[in-house]
Design the sequence.
């Protein structure tokens, strides 16, 4: 573990990693990275690297968890043993159970679970590299993966933390700020500002909480823009690959079809034979199967066939 820095904010008002107080770390998102998941996302939030996979709606196992009026949402957060400085013991622990629970609650209300009774929507998030803020990074990835899986949602959930270091509020804490800072408040919210996750570690005055929430809200808004853009880029790329026509192309094609219909009669109309009464001659002969010449038909001689003997 690194030593506690002497101070977190320099004389220019910049943090140790060069960021301004209200600046979030760079967010990179790739959508649809796993072929076997219904929806997936790879996300980097500064040095955090996470991957999210969504399965469902699908059958619920074990059955007793099934709800007759809605889908259940399950969320599994896991930190790879190689993701942190000191190797983490593999498998679930109290921390991952807690992160999974609050993250599920942060997403569940945004999903139209009533559309899928008796089914399950499973979200798995693996932290590949951790640098503080993994629960917010994981939530951002999970939200995009849900959208990629085509799960109907009220809105994307975007998450970002704020905290206090050197008696100063900062947004999106890095590892040292998280380890040695005075407070850490991860939050998640919808684009219309509804908070779906709020946890607090440390001490803050009510004024600090209010100001910090505004800072984190702006951070979430910036994350949301990256999530939205990543989804749009992904579907634009998919449209190019499948060569599905755009709306404009469909409209132009339909207009051309209409104008062709008016000027030239369809092929089948030209071929039809019309007799004097104006009625079509039925093609009786063509419809009947050709008669077979009885003399040329050879009956299979089963009794005398000794070819197998
Ligand atoms: O990651 P997040 O800030 O959401 O959760 P945390 O419990 O506040 O953990 C803060 C950071 O501590 C993590 O992001 C990891 O970088 C680190 N950590 C660790 O080094 N070893 C662990 N077993 C758990 C966390």
Sequence:
């Amino acid at each position: 573990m690194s030593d506690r820095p002497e101070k977190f904010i320099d004389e220019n008002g910049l943090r140790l990693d060069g960021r301004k107080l209200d600046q979030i770390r760079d967010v990179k998102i790739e959508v649809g990275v796993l072929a076997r998941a219904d929806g997936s996302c790879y996300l980097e939030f500064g040095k955090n690297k996470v991957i999210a996979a969504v399965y469902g709606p699908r059958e619920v196992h074990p059955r007793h968890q099934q709800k007759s009026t809605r889908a259940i949402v399950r969320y599994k957060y896991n930190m790879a043993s190689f993701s942190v400085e000191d190797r983490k013991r593999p498998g679930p622990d109290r921390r991952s159970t807690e992160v999974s629970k609050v993250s599920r609650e942060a997403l569940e209300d945004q999903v139209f679970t009533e559309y899928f009774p008796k089914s399950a929507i499973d979200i798995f998030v693996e932290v590949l590299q951790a640098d503080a803020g993994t629960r917010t990074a994981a939530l951002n990835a999970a939200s995009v993966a849900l959208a990629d899986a085509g799960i109907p949602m009220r809105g994307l959930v975007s998450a970002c933390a704020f905290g206090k270091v050197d008696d100063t509020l900062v947004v999106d804490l890095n590892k040292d700020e998280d380890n040695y800072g005075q407070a850490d408040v991860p939050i998640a919210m919808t684009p219309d500002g509804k908070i779906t996750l709020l946890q607090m570690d440390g001490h803050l005055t009510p004024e600090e909480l209010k100001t910090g929430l505004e800072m984190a809200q702006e951070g979430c808004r910036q994350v949301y823009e990256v999530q939205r853009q990543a989804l749009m880029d992904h579907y634009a790329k998919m449209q190019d690959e499948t060569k599905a026509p755009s709306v404009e192309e469909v409209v132009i094609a339909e207009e051309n079809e209409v104008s062709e219909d008016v000027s030239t009669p369809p092929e089948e109309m030209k071929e039809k034979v019309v007799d004097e009464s104006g009625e079509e001659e039925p093609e009786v002969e063509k419809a009947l199967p050709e008669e077979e010449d009885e003399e040329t038909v050879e009956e299979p001689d089963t009794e005398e066939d000794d070819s197998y003997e």
